[in-house]
Amino acid sequence: AQSVAQPEDQVNVAEGNPLTVKCTYSVSGNPYLFWYVQYPNRGLQFLLKYITGDNLVKGSYGFEAEFNKSQTSFHLKKPSALVSDSALYFCAVRGATGGFKTIFGAGTRLFVKA
Amino acid sequence: GAGVSQTPSNKVTEKGKYVELRCDPISGHTALYWYRQSLGQGPEFLIYFQGTGAADDSGLPNDRFFAVRPEGSVSTLKIQRTERGDSAVYLCASSLTGGLADTQYFGPGTRLTVL
């Protein structure tokens, strides 16, 4: 069965510091991995995805994510956090054997302090 | 261009009533998804449409939940005999083709409250 784990409910970081939001997954076959961000009272916004190829994926708003097959991880990163990055972040996975289901993690709340 | 829209934005109903939630996908997107998001949780898959047909409805929790997409565009999620446990935000998403690598674009959601 497919699954996603976001081990941290909350991440706190000071503005200007690098940030990492962790995600690990379990899927049969090749994974298709996604990161979404959710701001208050708004829908989920797509940040980036990994399909194949380079393990470092670059996305919107300066975010990037590193795919690590041996550790089954897809951590979200940003070199320099902004206060406006404070939001709820979701990791998601799809796999060939999971049909059309997208499995989302429980989310990680990011607080960036000025 | 216009994104995914959902109506109503909020719906308050009484236990046992029937509700309909509407989703307008991005024009030209053949795939449409419904999710349910409870407080403090990630979105939970309910159903996936490819065109007019439900290609995967394995996430519908029981037979009180039903969804249609008769013309391959707008979709309606229908909930009969609502229960307090149905209270959640219902999210709709669409994507261009429905392929595994496809990006899903989400609407703002409908917040359903069952009293």
Can you describe this structure in just a few lines?
The complex is a heterodimer of chains A (114) and B (115). With 114 residues, chain A is an all-beta fold.
Mean pLDDT of chain B: 95
Whole-angstrom Rg of chain B: 13 Å
Multimerization status: heterodimer
Structural class by SSE content of chain B? mainly beta
Q: What is the first-to-last residue Cα distance of chain A?
A: 41 Å
Span between termini of chain B: 37 Å
Count of DSSP H/I helices of chain B: 0
Question: Spans of chain B of 5+ residues with little confidence (pLDDT < 50)?
Answer: none
Given the C-alpha coordinates, what overall shape of chain B results? Answer: globular
The major β-sheet of chain A equals: 6 strands, mixed
Main beta sheet strand tally, sense and closure of chain B: 7 strands, mixed
Strand portion of chain B: over 45%
What is the number of beta strands of chain B?
Answer: 11
- Share of helix of chain B, binned: under 10%
* Coarse morphology of chain A: globular
- Got a strand count of chain A? 12
- What is the helix fraction of residues of chain A, given as a range? under 10%
Structural class of chain A: mainly beta
List the helices and strands and how they pair.
The complex is a heterodimer of chains A (114) and B (115).
Chain A: E1 3-5, E2 10-14, E3 19-21, E4 24-26, E5 31-38, E6 44-50, E7 56-58, E8 64-68, E9 73-78, E10 87-95, E11 103-104, E12 108-113
Chain B: E1 5-7, E2 10-13, E3 19-24, E4 31-37, E5 44-50, E6 53-56, E7 65-68, E8 75-79, E9 88-95, E10 105-106, E11 110-114
Parallel strand pairs in B: 2-11
Antiparallel strand pairs in B: 1-3, 3-8, 4-5, 4-9, 5-6, 7-8, 9-10, 9-11
